[in-house]
Design a protein that fits this description.
Number of helices: 2
Radius of gyration: 14 Å
Distance between the termini: 25 Å
Helix content: 25-40%
Strand order of the largest sheet: 1-2-3
Number of strands: 5
Length: 97
């Protein structure tokens, strides 16, 4: 269904790819990692403007024993970037075990 590849890209190169794929009405899938860490997210961008952010790459926890995810960390780090890059009108957190 998807033709995944693995490459390191600069943020400018990523924006170019996203713009091209949006223009072609393609679904965009990207694994993003926080700089100098192994913490990451899966980002899927659908047409028209729906974004799915999956927090499942080496999650950051408030408490590892209870596996309580630090949503505030993700919101403070990722949402400003997404709001800068895209016209975000709303967002919703859903947690599924």
């Amino acid at each position: 269904m998807y033709n995944w590849t693995t490459e390191n890209k600069t943020i400018d190169q990523l924006y170019e790819i996203i713009n091209l794929k949006e223009h072609n009405k393609e679904t965009i899938g990207v694994d993003l990692y926080w700089k100098d860490s192994d913490i990451g997210v899966k980002l899927l961008i659908f047409e028209p403007g729906e974004i799915l952010l999956s927090i499942d790459i080496n999650r950051k926890y408030i408490d590892k024993e209870t596996q309580l995810i630090d949503f505030n960390w993700y919101a403070s780090k990722i949402l400003p970037i997404l709001c800068n890059a895209f016209f975000v009108t709303q967002y919703k957190f859903t947690f599924i075990y």
